[in-house]
Amino acid sequence: MSELIIKNIQKFYGDHKVIDKLDLQINSGEFVTLLGPSGCGKTTLLRMIAGLETIDGGELYIGGRKANNIPAQKRRIAMVFQSYALFPHMSVKNNIVFGLRIKGMELHDMFTRLDWVLPLLGLEGLENRLPREISGGQRQRVALARALVLDPDVLLLDEPLSNLDTALREMAMEELKRVHRQVGKTIIYVTHNQAEAMTMSERIAVMNAGHLEQYDTPGALYRHPRTMFSAEFIGSPSANFIPGTIEIKNGELVLNSEIGLLEIDETRKDYLRNFSGRSVVAGIRPQDIILSSTRTHRRASDSHVTLGVELIENHGDRSFVLGRFENGLPVRFMAANDSDYRTDARVEVLIDGRCIHLFDPETRQNILEK
Ligand SMILES: Nc1ncnc2c1ncn2[C@@H]1O[C@H](COP(=O)(O)OP(=O)(O)O)[C@@H](O)[C@H]1O
Ligand SMILES: [Mg+2]
User: Fold this and answer.
1) Which atom of ligand 1 is nearest to the CA of 159?
2) pLDDT (mean) for 125-133
3) What Å distances lie between residue 224 and 65, 93, 356, 359, CA to CA?
4) CATH superfamily membership of 240-359
């Protein structure tokens, strides 16, 4: 049992509050990612879980036991650091079994673990090489192997793929998912890269300046962002944010926004009547705005807006387009590459009212997602 419960946890460096009353519960065997911008406290939280940093407030439970004061070496937790921290003068094999040797494991048992982990991570044949004689991707796998042979209950990975190029990183992501399925360990993965988090995790904890913005599955984070920060950080390109007011026009509820009147889907209208007259910020993903010409079927909740095309960024099958409304407001959207549009043209786009997220401009919280 390696469930992890973090309750109201806090960390200060001097007067600087780095982790602010954070709650998180991680199931045994779950793959959870801490996602957030650089400096938001991801590494600090990971090091607190590992026992490498003291906990200044709140409680940490590992497998049902309070762990605040359990020393690092007794926590059955292994950590892979961003730098990998391999010993340069030691062979791959000796790097991998180093931790087992320290623990005084029998040679025979050490070799059993080695025989298990080398094929698991595709490192067979490289046992006797030095770290400088293998590639970056292989070094990353050695670091992972070294953590796995310790047979930890919880595996902590701090931006392990950030030193790899795109192709290697994609391969390593698939591999990490496969390893997780095979070993079934609880994994806490840290990254600032939303695509990595979305690809691999069962749940993602979105962090901002030491606090938790949202903790949800990748699908729920994308479809139901609870804060403007979540909406901006998850998904690529980032969501558009357009100020407006919720109003009743001719008895119908609409969003009077800075790019015109926008329809909202029927299912949310009733509830939104309570918000009539309120200022909001509409969060709309570029993926939810399409060229009107590419859609024949129209829904009552679709709105049409005319934009000038300013920039087209080609992504092969589709393009990311920077459009501009007549008042100068930028609106980013996606367009299929077989459709007809070009720079400086005026185009009509369709905004799907079901996909407009509404935020309070003051609290930056979603007014509908609690
Ligand atoms: N040992 C330390 N002493 C003082 N401040 C620190 C220390 N370690 C980290 N910090 C500060 O704590 C904040 C969070 O850092 P960190 O956990 O490394 O963020 P992340 O891993 O999300 O980039 C940053 O503002 C950083 O400067
Ligand atoms: Mg870090």
Assistant:
1) 21
2) 96
3) 34, 46, 10, 11
4) Nucleic acid-binding proteins (2.40.50.140)
